[in-house]
Amino acid sequence: MTAQPISTVLITGGAGFIGSNFCHMLAELRPDWSIVNLDALTYAGNLENLTSLEGLGGYTFLQGDIRESSAVEKALDAAGDPATVGVVHMAAESHVDRSIEGGLPFVSTNVLGTQVLLDACRARGIGRFVHVSTDEVYGSLGAQGSFTEQTPLAPNSPYSASKAASDLLVRAAFQTHGFSACITRCSNNYGPYQFPEKLLPLIIANAREDKDLPIYGDGLQVRDWLFVRDHNEAILAVLEGGRPGEVYNIGGNNEMPNLHLVRLVLKELAKPESLITFVKDRPGHDRRYAIDASKIKAELGWQPRFTFEQALPLTIRWYLSQTQWMQRVRSGAYRDYYARQYGA
Ligand code: NAD
Ligand code: DAU
């Protein structure tokens, strides 16, 4: 397929945390591109993340499941000429604790759904496809070292195992069929619109209401935190310039133990550390992640633009100001939005 400029991005999972931030970023950075957002609206999909895009000429939302080829075909029809379409695949079951409760939805969406999407995109002749994966596919690190793109896959949770399986299917589509896909593997994101089952929005919401902050095990597990906008700029760089068949690690060089992060949030909110409550550890809990992002920096010129010192207070302020958003998410009221807005 000759590389024509991209004019439309088909995003899967665009109503979730990273996906909705990606849609907002595209509207800002690539205002002449169209966006087709295919999302099943599971509990994690929230159209209230995207209200400011509704009514924009170039934005189309389609409720649909990536496991159903008819839904994927409809989205590809809406996206138009495959030569000018880039696909960004974010739809997934994404929460480790839920995968410990039950792995099947993870295998179903993350593995089966990815294969359905790959087959449909390949049949259409889509020439640019970014599979958004995670550093968790590499497993857990000791005190030293960081994950490179050559680190063997060693996932420890049903979530990360299903993501690793999807990565291998994307690799196979490239190796077997020459399907032009890249894979990104990013560390923990933080920022607006994250579902409050994840650590950071959970502790902000709980601390604000003087509720206990559940910290798994000793709280010394280390994560590398990256602002969601930096992740999304990296994905855009891969979409526009990544080499087919390549994996790109993305990270913030910003490692810290969970307890440290929680203390920073408490300080910012002027709340007491006595809210910290140690609870039973997560089974199979990965001890430490750290990313070597030198490849994407050298090849595509990507750099994180936000320091943690800038973006953490910004993120906390966002959650504090969005009381209605948080209240509607926590009460489940956000799930009515689709029916009200789209009449379905
Ligand atoms: P999220 O859970 O907030 O959003 C997932 C979205 O996918 C939701 O809108 C949901 O409705 C949709 N979805 C789920 N199953 C679907 C299906 N069968 N068909 C269509 N849509 C479906 O997830 P997130 O945190 O925004 O993560 C997005 C992607 O980035 C995931 O693939 C995840 O593995 C990856 N990732 C996340 C992080 C992170 O820190 N959150 C870091 C690295 C990579
Ligand atoms: O590394 C990238 C991954 O980051 C993504 O692939 C996942 O989709 C995303 O959910 C995230 O996974 P984590 O398991 O690291 O994120 P979570 O917010 O669930 O937990 C962050 C850390 O905080 C982890 O060590 C577990 C701990 N934790 C989490 C919760 C929800 C607690 O101590 N208490 C909690 O209540």
Q: How would you summarize this macromolecular structure in one to three sentences?
A:
The chain has helices spanning 17-29, 69-79, 96-101, 104-124, 158-177, 199-208, 228-241, 258-269, 294-300, 308-321, 323-331, 337-342; strands at 8-12, 34-39, 59-63, 85-89, 128-134, 181-186, 189-190, 213-216, 222-224, 226-227, 247-250, 255-257, 276-279. It has 344 residues and is α/β, with parallel strands linked by helices. The strands form 4 sheets. Strands 3-2-1-4-5-6-11 form a 7-stranded parallel sheet, sandwiched between helices. It has a two-stranded parallel ribbon with strand order 7-10. A two-stranded parallel sheet has the order 8-13.
Q: Low-confidence spans: pLDDT under 50, at least 5 residues? A: none
CATH third-tier fold name of the domain at 8-190 and 226-253 and 285-307: Rossmann fold
Helix and strand composition category: alpha/beta
**What number is the mean pLDDT?**
96
Rg value: 19 Å
- Secondary structure: number of strands: 13
Please identify the top-level CATH class of the domain at 8-190 and 226-253 and 285-307: Alpha Beta
Widest sheet: strand ordering: 3-2-1-4-5-6-11
Total helix count?
12
Shape summary: globular
How would you spell out the order of helices and strands? EHEEHEHHEHEEHEEEHEEHEHHHH
Q: Which CATH-level-2 architecture of the domain at 8-190 and 226-253 and 285-307?
A: 3-Layer(aba) Sandwich
Bound compounds, each kind once, are:
nicotinamide-adenine-dinucleotide, 2'deoxy-thymidine-5'-diphospho-alpha-D-glucose
**Percent of residues in beta strands:** 15-25%
What is the share of helical residues?
40-55%
Distance between the termini: 38 Å
